[in-house]
């Protein structure tokens, strides 16, 4: 399932947890064991910290439809898939306005 923004809004800054910085360079940020609403808050904080052209993968406890909607509103691209064992993987990408054309 892919979500692509149909409108952009200015996102307010969100404090970024230390895990978000590591996730952009070491792989998926696993948020499945966190109590609500921490998975969404941490995923948004990590996504807000992405540089243009940056990407991030987060693991969530279920298919995060509200997260996907907020990411689209913030001008980010997200692809989500259910995992066979538990939860979902969301790949988040911030478009680079000066890079190659987006899909």
Concise account of the structure shown:
Helix 1 crosses helix 2 (about 40-50) and helix 2 (about 40-50) packs parallel to helix 3 (about 65-75). Strand 4 and strand 5 form a beta hairpin.
Write the layout of secondary structure elements.
Elements: E1 2-3, H1 18-26, E2 28-30, H2 38-48, E3 55-60, H3 65-73, E4 77-82, E5 88-93
Parallel strand pairs: 2-3
Antiparallel strand pairs: 1-4, 3-5, 4-5
Protein architecture, described:
The N terminus is likely disordered. It contains three helices and five strands, in the order E-H-E-H-E-H-E-E. By secondary structure, the protein is an alpha+beta fold. Helix 2 links the parallel strand 2 and strand 3. Helix content is 28%, strand content 22%. The chain is globular.
Strand content: 15-25%
Q: Report the CATH topology name of the domain at 29-94.
A: Translation Initiation Factor IF3
Uncertain residue segments: 1-26
Count the strands?
A: 5
Question: What class, by secondary structure content?
Answer: alpha+beta
Overall shape: it is globular
The helix count comes to: 3
Mean pLDDT: 78
The major β-sheet equals:
5 strands, mixed
**Strand numbers in spatial order across the main sheet:** 1-4-5-3-2
Shape-level CATH architecture of the domain at 29-94: 2-Layer Sandwich
Q: How far apart are the first and last residues' alpha carbons, in Å? A: 14 Å
Proportion in helices: 25-40%
Rg is: 13 Å
Which CATH top level class of the domain at 29-94 fits? Alpha Beta
The CATH superfamily name of the domain at 29-94 is TusA-like domain
Question: Element order, helices and strands?
Answer: EHEHEHEE
């Amino acid at each position: 399932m892919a979500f692509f923004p149909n409108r952009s809004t200015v996102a307010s800054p969100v404090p970024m947890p230390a895990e978000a910085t590591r996730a952009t360079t070491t792989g998926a940020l696993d948020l499945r064991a966190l109590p609500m609403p921490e998975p969404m808050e941490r995923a948004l904080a990590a996504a807000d910290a992405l540089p243009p052209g940056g990407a991030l993968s987060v693991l969530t406890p279920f298919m995060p439809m509200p997260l996907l909607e907020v990411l689209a509103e913030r001008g980010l691209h997200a692809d989500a898939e259910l995992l066979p064992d538990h939860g979902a993987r969301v790949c988040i990408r911030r478009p680079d306005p000066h890079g190659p054309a987006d899909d």
